[in-house]
Specification:
The protein is an alpha/beta fold and 334 residues long. The protein has two domains: 225 residues, Spore Coat Polysaccharide Biosynthesis Protein SpsA, Chain A (Alpha-Beta Complex); 94 residues, no CATH class. Helix content is 43%, strand content 18%. Strands 1, 2, 3, 4, 5, 6, 7, 8 and 9 form a nine-stranded mixed sheet that branches. Strand 2, helix 3 and strand 3 form a beta-alpha-beta unit. The radius of gyration is 20 Å and the shape is globular. 36% of the residues are buried.
């Protein structure tokens, strides 16, 4: 059966508009919520849900199978017996979900996050259908801990108003965007550049690929929920072992990505890419509390981009390290 025939051969005889790509590993506690919120979207178009479970050792695969039985025409899982990430395949979506997507658009989420606005997809699709020059839409998110407590509300809010985002702005962006907010034209991910394949994270190179293709649009609405540093997440894995070494390695790999992107795009975004790489290196210094680098004159502009809360606690730890440590230990003992 040809790809075109596959696109129209679904229960409603309509083409799939959005391929929702879900990546999960040991998300048994969360994957049901994630799928319920995708399936509960209010929409006037067809979707498919492409799930890749990377050999979870909890009950995630059992839950995914139960949803597949209820929605066999929508939910299309790959349930691994061997973990692919441990084999060096760091961007699971690109390796296993994008190649089988048939929708006009591709949406993304990790299995531990979820969409909290029932019209999220409809809003994004409506905008992109009305603005064919727009290749990518995204939005802000609520950030919560594993137990649901709200974290810093500005953590996943890159801009203060809904607006068009020009390519250079998307490359040189001070605040991260939630992975679960992404909606791209499928044409962007049909051919994956090396800087995507080799990158240790999947969100930043996708933004660069979108920037290379055209304009984007940002919705200043928290339409998804991001669970911060839960067990098994990439963020949590960075906190174990030699944290400083991991951060240095991450900064080096991101520099490699930005330089590769710069070459791939013929230097069109050179200044923005180099600035973005420098910012990421600065943020790793913040994470490892390299105070000499944090307060260096060369990094003054990046330092000013930090919010007042972060600057306060960095300064507190720098000037009164013993008191800061004592207060942290007391808080952790509660």
């Amino acid at each position: 059966m040809s790809k075109v025939e596959t696109e129209v051969n679904n229960e409603h005889d309509k083409p799939v508009m959005v391929s929702v790509c879900v990546v999960t590993y040991n998300h048994g506690k969360y994957i049901g919520t994630c799928l319920d919120h995708i399936l509960g979207q209010e929409r006037n178009f067809e979707i498919e849900i492409l799930i890749h479970d990377d050999a979870s050792i909890d009950n995630a695969q059992e839950i995914i199978r139960s949803y597949q039985e209820k929605y066999p025409d929508i939910i299309k899982p790959i349930l691994r017996k061997e973990n692919q990430y441990s084999k060096g395949i760091t961007n699971i979506s690109g390796a296993f979900n994008f190649p089988r997507a048939i929708g006009k658009y591709v949406a993304l989420t990790d299995g531990d996050d979820y969409w909290c606005d029932p019209r999220k997809l409809q809003k994004q699709v409506d905008y992109m259908e009305a603005h064919p020059q727009c290749v990518f839409t995204f939005h802000s998110a609520r950030v919560v801990t594993e137990d649901g407590a709200l974290v810093n509300g500005e953590l996943m809010r890159p801009y203060k108003q809904s607006r068009v985002v020009k390519p250079e702005e998307l490359v040189d962006k001070a605040i991260g965007s939630p992975f679960a907010s992404f909606l791209l034209r499928r044409s962007i991910v049909e051919k994956l550049p090396d800087y995507y394949v080799d990158c240790p994270v999947g969100d930043r190179p996708l933004e660069l690929m979108a920037a290379a293709a055209g304009d984007s649009y940002y919705f200043d609405e928290a339409m998804s929920v991001y669970r911060f540093s839960i067990g098994g997440s990439w963020t949590e894995s960075q906190m174990t072992g030699d944290y400083v070494k991991k951060q240095e390695k991450f900064a080096s790999e991101l520099w490699k990505m930005y330089k590769s992107f710069d070459e791939e795009t013929g230097g069109r975004f050179h200044e923005a890419a180099m600035r973005a790489g420098g910012r990421n290196e600065f943020l790793t210094k913040v994470n490892t509390r390299d105070f000499k680098a944090i307060y260096s004159a060369d990094n003054r502009e990046f330092y000013k981009e930090l919010n007042l809360r972060d600057r306060f606690f960095i300064g507190f730890e720098y000037r009164m390290p013993k008191l800061y440590k004592w207060l942290r230990e007391r808080k952790n003992d509660r």
